Structure formats: C-alpha cells, structure tokens
Amino acid sequence: MEPNVADVLIEALPYMRRFYKNTVVIKYGGHAMKDEQLKDAFAQDISLLQVVGVNPVVVHGGGPQINQVLEQMGIVSRFVRGMRVTDAPTMDVVEMVLGGKVNKSIVSLISRAGGRAVGLSGKDGGLLTARKMTLSVQEDALAPPEIIDPGQVGTVTKVDPAIIHTLGSQGFVPVIAPVGVGEDGQTFNINADLVAGKVASSLKAARLILITDVDGVLDNDSKLISSLNAASARRMIKSGIIAGGMIPKVECALDALSHGVEKVHIINGKKRHAILLELFTDKGIGTEVTLN
Questions:
Q1: 10-residue averages of pLDDT along the chain (292 residues)
Q2: Where are the domains of the chain?
Q3: What is the pTM of this model?
Q4: Yes or no: is domain 22-37+44-210+236-290 CATH 3.40.1160.10?
Q5: 271 close to 277: Cβ distance less than 8 angstroms
C-alpha cells in the first residue's frame, strides 16, 4: 500500500530536526542542470531546505554550457584525465559562463521557487585561493610519466568561508561558481566536485551531496551500494569495482570525511527531488559514504 502524505511527512520529521540549523553543501551538475523539470525540482528542494531551517550551500558545474559557447567561438577543447586544458581564451569563456550565465540562472531558479540566493565566484571575498594543478599521464609502465600543462586549471589551497557565513546568517543561499584565484592574481578553473568538498570541509558541514547522472556507487553486479565506509571504498577503488568518473567523486568524499564532514551522499540528479529523498527518508536513494 502506498504511504499517504501524512506518513511521508512523519518519516521526514526526525531528519528535519536532525539537520535544523546545520549546513548541507550540494554539488549541482550533470543532467539535473539541463532538464527543465529537474531544474525546477532542484530549486524547490533548496527552497524547502531553507524553510525547514537547513543552511544549504550550492556549488555548481557547467561543462556542457561552456562547451556550447566555446564551439560557437570556434575554440576546440582538449581534456586530460577529465580536466579541461584551459588556456587564457578558454579561461575567459569559463569565467564568463560559470560566473555569469550559469550562476545567475541558478540564483533565479531558486528565487522563483521561493528561496533567497546570492551568486558568488570563488574570487569573491577571497573565498577560494588556488594554485596551478599539475597533471601526469603514464601510458607505458616502462616509460617515465608525461607531465601535461593543463593551463589555468587549479586546485584549492585555501577556503575562507567568511562570506558564506555572512550570507547564511542573513538567510541567503550562497551559489558558488568554481573559479578561484592564485596568490599572483591569476584566475583558475577548478573542478566543481573538488570545490564542493573543500567548501564542505571548511564549513564542517553535516552533509556533502554530490549530484551525478548515476544512482551512486555500484557493486560488481551493477547494484546500488546504499552505504559505504572509507576502508571499503578504498578497497573497491584498488580492485577496480569503483572506476572511471566515480573515482574522483569517491576520493572527494573521502577527503571531505577526513576533514570534518559527517557524511557524503552520491545521488542521481535525474530523479526528481533527489535531495529531499536522500536527506529526509529512511532508505534514501543513493550511496551514503561514511568514515567508519
């Protein structure tokens, strides 16, 4: 028998109590950013979190939107280990698209759903300090690794959460574009998962939610693993069960857990209201990653 509305609300009640006045960092990306119904559902989820007293912080990607503008400008993208090689013209486009078009569209979506949001770049208020990332590729075990210059691709060296605290205390949802600045003032394009993990760590967030296009971490039989601890996750990476694009997400989760985040959730953003279903129901819908 299907649960009635009252049953659903009663199931959600202890979780609403648990997360009241707690911070939840959400990495928003993938198909959930492209489908209109999913975009509306995401914005409604963020608005509802605010209403029940949770402090959501959104970090977003925007790869497809960047690709579209680069193609229109005749700039060809090159990727190494999933990272966009970012020269100066590409960086200009990345910053324009992420910090402008994508960021402001998310702010607008949340506002339309009844929330209060403010768009930020990692450059605002000294939020994200970064340094250049170095990449190496070793295709032949007998040959030395090849060092690849990724251009203006960065990794986070410091998060100053003061501006996030200021906005949160005034009832605003910070919506962060993953662009940082180096000590010398150079702008860097940073992976959104990485930024979300570092931001969650700096805030000692109760939860980090990574929205993806798959159900979560899968076992050898392609079945969802609903709960996973750090030791098991490392074993699964070593054995190849966790592979491909899931590796950096799980590594991001493990890093966040080791720096004070209580739990990390990897969920499928192609499911409407995925955030609410993961946070406020007994079963959840994705993979919950814990330290122990």
A1: 80 96 96 94 98 97 92 87 85 95 97 97 96 79 77 96 96 97 95 96 98 95 96 95 91 96 97 97 96 94
A2: 22-37+44-210+236-290
A3: 0.94
A4: yes
A5: yes
